[in-house]
Amino acid sequence: MEREAWQSLNGLWDYVITPRDADVCPQEADGKILVPFAIESALSGVGKHITEEDALWYRTTFTVPKKWKKQQIWLNFQAVDWGTEVWVNGQYVGAHTGGFTAFSFNITPYLKKGQQELLVKVIDGTDNNEQPRGKQVSRPKGIWYTAVSGIWQTVWLEPTPTETRIARYQAVPGSDATSFSLFAWVEGAQPGDLINMRVKDSEGACVEECAPVGQPVMLFPENPHQWSPEDPYLYDIEFALERDGKIIDKVEGYGALREVQEVIDKAGHKRLGLNGKPYFEFGPLDQGWWPDGLYTAPTDEALRYDIEQTKAFGYNMIRKHIKVEPARWYYWCDKLGILVWQDMPCITDSRLGHWTIPTWAKPEDDSKLTDSAKATYYKEWGEIMDQQQVFPCIVVWVPFNEAWAQFDTYDVVDFTRAKDPSRLINSASGGNSYPNCGDILDNHHYPNPQMYFYSDNTQIDVLGEYGGIGWAVEGHLWQPDRNWGYVKFNSYEEVLAQYREYAQQLKKIIADGVSAAVYTQTTDVEVEVNGLMTYDRVVTKMPSEELFEINQDVIAALKE
Asked: Buried (b) or exposed (e) across 75-100, using 16+ Cβ within 10 A?
């Protein structure tokens, strides 16, 4: 969602680490930190770890552009891990919890003439708290990685003419992928406010309609052009908020016409469908970690690179593994054309790290989380879905990974469905399965592709994880020893031969009804060396051309 005027606040800020319960930030800084990189990362310039006993304070100054005079000024944080409090010019502005979603404040009442001071306090319990944190741990090893604390996505300012503004929008394709259902959420709306919604194609042809705020609109583009990984066609969408004949806010975005649903193939198997046809979804497990930035890619080009390489490897899907990326990552998936399965970052549970074979389960097999932990999960999962559902690349929601803090599965699926009925739900990828709970039954099997059990065609059967072929490439390692993969080899020839063998096995279970597969994984991450690329993205462990041919052959194994 783009406005015409904005100002980045990224850059060098002062930082101070104090006890968690400190009410006042010391004036003397511990040093400088480069925002938006987490304090544990190399790119932050700090490289220190924050514990649950600490508070991390940030201080910076900024000046509001003179041309924004008499406008409302909004302070935006795209993501801060985990609990955040904000002051402007010594006055308390507000707070937010959650490490993966954006939040903003109208700071106009707190501004003064000239230079402004911004103060931010962050606390982060990582795995010592009831908070969604994904793969972060205080003591990284194996499949668990270095913790990420503080500001790790962009901070910026935006002006609007009034306190009323467009907060977010939705562009849901109709059931036949020939129309858009458009809706905009407006903060501070007044009776009589109108919103004009316009959809424009690449040739400049547009359809539009004006409606009262709070009312959805259906728009039907001429000659509808459907989106797919093979043809990632996007429509420009514009929302203009009007009051008394004047535009008081305007944002630009985009949307795509694509239909995601369950379909039946000629053999009678339930399949994942795209635009009305069976479509085999095949891609890597993508952790989204970087050796220098941890959660944060060093540049937008780097963020795009991983997606481009995934496409070059012949895949059509990415499973975003228990992490939520910056909006730009999803934009590139939409623009370049790749499907996304979006995981919910897991929260702490005593069973974390203890993988079990998925089985048909009973409610008593779920984790016994506290009520407060459940409330935190629902709050953050709901906010993640609200924020991410604007991106058409996302086709599957994954509320749980394996049985890691899996709780009240039927209720969570109902919550997810109510939030977004337009996408499919994979209730627990590789975790405890429940009859007819969600749309997808998901097995994990390492290292070779194999299904422990099927749903008897009551759900769509998928292989949510397999592979993990490891090769520790000397000179491209996080540490020189104690590296691991599910299977280990010492050359690209060995890795390629094993990958090719697994592809042949995968084609056999596709014929048995398997509708998707996820290979572990895009890159090495810290001591985990089972990536298609090394952690620094310098070495691709198999020739891209051969990998492309193998993967395209697998995808083609599912006939219409």
From this structure: bbbbbbbbbbbbbbeeeebeebbbbb
